[in-house]
Amino acid sequence: MPDSPVDEIFQAFADRGADHYGENVSQIEHALQCAYLAVEEGAGDHLVAAALLHDFGHLFEARGEVAESEGRDARHEIHGARALGRWFGRDVTGPVALHVAAKRYLCATEPAYEEALSAASRLSLKLQGGPFTAEERLAFERSPFAADAVRLRRWDDTGKIPDLAVPPLEHYRPLLERLAAA
Ligand code: FE
Ligand code: FE
Questions:
Q1: Distance 156 CA to ligand 1 centre (A)
Q2: H-helix or E-strand spanning residue 65
Q3: Domain containing 56: what range?
Q4: Which end of the chain is flanked by fewer CB atoms within 10 Å, N or C?
Q5: Is 139 inside a domain boundary?
Q6: Protein residues near ligand 2, an ion, with CB under 5 A
Q7: Which ligand lies nearest the alpha carbon of 158?
Q8: How far is the CA of 1 from the centre of ligand 1 (A)?
Q9: Which domain CATH number covers 160?
């Protein structure tokens, strides 16, 4: 019997979750912290799942490392959203696909935001195209997932705290199974 979607997702975390996130935490720590922050802020299930899985593209995208080592952006948010689209609806994949755009948006709209970014995040911003232009800003605001993507982005920026104690991956199994079945 093939693995369930959730087993497949958890396997990706088992295989690659220990990878360095580029800050002082691993991929799995970052994912779990983002999901935890989403729950703490009362986010709906779809957005908790998006927070947990927003960097899913990093977990299976071997090409990503090649691209990044060559100074190109691997567009992990797009690869991740596409993979997750096999199992989840747009309310999950939409914010995932836009979490990099949300950073570019916030850099363009909040002067203090860019200054507060981590060094790694500021470096990747350049590869990702830098702050949005006025036109790109408007296009972003028209997306039905813009507000969720901005909320997700703030957890993304915060969820890098070494040794923070948060619930484990298994904690999210029922939520993910519900969403994948819907
Ligand atoms: Fe990301
Ligand atoms: Fe992230």
A1: 7
A2: helix 62-69
A3: 5-99+147-176
A4: N
A5: no
A6: 55, 156
A7: 2
A8: 32
A9: 1.10.3210.10
70: in domain: yes
Ligand closest to Cα of 30 equals: 2
Low-confidence spans in the chain with pLDDT less than 70: 1-2, 22, 61-69
Ligand 2 centroid – CA 174 distance (Å)? 23
| CA of 1 relative to ligand 2 center, distance in Å | 32
Q: What is the pLDDT of residues 80-118, one digit of tens each?
A: 999 999 999 999 999 999 999 999 999 999 989 999 988
Whether 128 is covered by a domain: the verdict is no
Q: How many CB atoms lie within 10 A of CB 22?
A: 17
Domain for residue 86, yes or no?
yes
Helices 134-142 and 146-158, packing angle to 10 deg = 110
Measured distance CA(33)–CA(12) in Å, rounded: 17
Domain count, the chain: 1
Nearest to 92 by CA among 46, 146, 145: 46
